Amino acid sequence: MTEPEPWWTGAVVYQVYPRSFADGNGDGVGDLAGLRKHLDHIADLGVDVIWLSPVYRSPQADNGYDISDHEDIDPLFGTIDEFDALLVEVHRRGMRLVMDLVVNHSSDQHPWFRAARRSRTCPKHDWYIWRDPVDGHEPNDWRAAFDGPAWSWDPGTGQYYLHMFTPQQPDLNWENPDMREAVYEMMNRWLDRGVDGFRMDVINHIAKDDDALSGDSDAYVMQPRIHEHLQEMHERVFAGRDALLTVGEMPGVTVEDAALFTDPERHELDMVFQFEHVGLDHAPASKFTRQETDLPALKASLARWQTGLEARGWNSLYLSNHDQPRPVSRFGAAARSAADGPGSGTDPFAFRYESATLLATVLHLHRGTPYVYQGDEIGMVDAGFTAIEQYRDVESLNWFRGAVGRGMPTASALEALAFRSRDNARTPIPWDDSEPAGGFSTAQPWIGMGQGWPRITVAADRAAGDRSVYEHHRRLIDLRHRSRTVRLGTFALLEPEHPALWAFTRSLPAASARDEDDPPLVVVANLSASELVLPAGVAGRAGDLVLGNLGEPDSAGRLRPWEARVHECR
Q: Same structural domain for residues 96 and 118?
């Protein structure tokens, strides 16, 4: 008798970026009180899990990913009592709550680091990564993710400390067993409090190569001891706890790596976030250099992960999060026509409903656990900022200063930010069209509302009937819950080289199918502004319509612009 599949194979996760979700106290920043007020908006979608981006105490050098106290809530977001009340409300609605775990680094204001920099003889000094100068300079040429050297000088100790992100985010030393023990104790206390798991920020950075720290190799990703660390974490924290969700964010991870990390017999993680598909439109020199998304390459990338993790392991499915541009603007109709170049007058709202629902259909019909980032369920678009003063993201500001300092024209640098900045995903949720901030806050928000407001709001979308992006997401989530084929069926890509058609099948092995309850499915989607005639080999597979973003098809063998359909497969 086969074991039942894990609960999360049929789950959908909704990511909340709290400072931009809803403001409950009128200071212009989203908080826990605002989230509690709008929990029904999330629950009504039918999602199973809320992933909450960091709300811990933090100086906010990197919007909360620089944590100064892992066990308390920052006053910006509320109190620990408010968190407990939120957790109760989430559970009462039948959902789980997953916390963001940031343990590759801490804030430089964390008590651990404050102690570490007092003296080389302090036991906590070894909880971080220090090196003596080499010829009066940094120990190697490593560069931080947000520009600049990865080493900062500490005059009190006469050493450099490592930070793979901002200087305010010193990296923790995972070779120190006492530091690891402190992390595990902290994690267990959150789980004992009722939290249902963790999304682990850049978790594959935690294992560094000691020899490379004194050389020039970028040996801070995917080092061999990462598996030892995660297996120890599983043993000390996750083992014996039912119904948790553990997902690791892993820049640079390969399909082969992910198969190891998510193999249930290895006792590491349930799933990983990989970056291959969202890096395809990055130029080699910089992610801020725009390249047009190549649809065959995007299809091939996701298909490779589907087949690579079919026998063992599991996929996380996403097109956006707090670090990525909005899918409608990146992969939708506006993006596909943006090749005309700057100043071409491309409409950022072109086929917005169609683009948002097509992309959601394609994503949710893959095998894995889909992640819905806040605002995507109403088809939000990129921020559309035109001045550097509108940006808040540390990565964007650092890159802009460096690019302009190296001679890039200001206008060109702003065009690059408008396409790639993380702030594109961080504009507030527009609940309605009221002033001054669309129901997000009664004050001016911490960042501008973006070009979508007041045209795009939650109230308007949910009232839009058969053109509601929100309602289409509800149908997709319901289909996953009902269909074992969607949850567990194998994936086969069709027409891989077609420049506009995204088509694939999902099917269960004959021995696993349950007759009419689990029919094979074929998904067809037209990523173009022109009508598309389906190739005969694809059209011939399409049986009864299961779900479509434009309702009943005009023609079984044709797709309207940005139309997506799910059919029973003949």
A: no
Which CATH number belongs to the domain containing residue 131 in this structure?
3.90.400.10
Cα(143)–Cα(217) distance, rounded to whole angstroms? Answer: 11
Question: Which pair of tokens denotes residue 171?
Answer: 């990296």
- 341 and 373 both lie in a single domain: yes
Q: Identify the active-site residue in 62, 74, 82, 201.
A: 201
Asked whether 126 and 172 are in contact (CB, 8 A), the reply is no
How does pLDDT run across 280-307, given as a tens digit for each residue?
Answer: 999 887 889 888 889 999 999 999 999 9
Report the 10 Å Cβ neighbour count for 466.
10
The CATH number of the domain where 313 resides is what? Answer: 3.20.20.80
- Whether 147 is catalytic is no
How many domains are there within the chain?
Answer: 3
Is the CB of residue 227 less than 8 Å from the CB of residue 253? no
Catalytic site includes residue 415: no
Q: Are 285 and 410 in the same domain? A: yes
Domain check: are 363 and 488 in the same one? Answer: no
Residue-wise DSSP of 349-418: TTTHHHHHHHHHHHHHTSSSEEEEETTGGGT-------SGGG---HHHHHHHHHHHHTT--HHHHHHHHH
Q: Is residue 466 part of a domain?
A: no
Spatial CB neighbours of 297, under 8 Å, sequence gap ≥ 6 = 280
Contact yes or no for 435/416 (Cβ under 8 A): no
Paired tokens of 351: 């086929």
Point out the least confidently predicted range of 218-232, 419-433, 473-487: 218-232
**Per-residue confidence (pLDDT) for residue 343, from 0 to 100:** 39
458 within some domain:
no
Q: Please give the pLDDT value at position 215.
A: 58
pLDDT digits (tens, 9 = 90+) for 103-129: 999 999 999 999 999 999 999 999 999
For 137, list phi and psi in degrees, rounded to 5: -130, -175
User: 514 and 384, same structural domain?
Assistant: no
Cα(52)–Cα(517) distance, integer angstroms: 34
CA distances from 442 to 75, 281, 373 (A): 19, 38, 24
C-alpha–C-alpha distance, residues 77 and 379, integer Å: 26
Query: Tens of pLDDT along 22-31?
Result: 999 999 999 9
560 inside domain: yes
Q: Are residues 48 and 122 in the same domain?
A: no
Kindly report, residue by residue over 59-72, the tens digit of the pLDDT. 999 999 999 999 99
Q: For residue 411, what are the contacts with CB-CB under 8 A and spacing of at least 6? A: none
Domain extent, residue 507, equals 483-569
CB 446 within 8 A of CB 19: yes
Q: What is the domain-level CATH number for residue 514?
A: 2.60.40.1180
| Least confident among 168-182, 205-219, 528-542 | 205-219
Is residue 218 domain-shared with residue 362, that is, in the same domain? yes
pTM equals: 0.96
Q: Is 309 among the domain residues?
A: yes
- Give the residue carrying structure tokens 């021995």: 511
Catalytic hit among 31, 74, 232, 249: 249
Q: How many CB atoms lie within 10 A of CB 85?
A: 15
Task: Looking at the structure, tell me whether residues 259 and 216 fall in a common domain.
Answer: yes
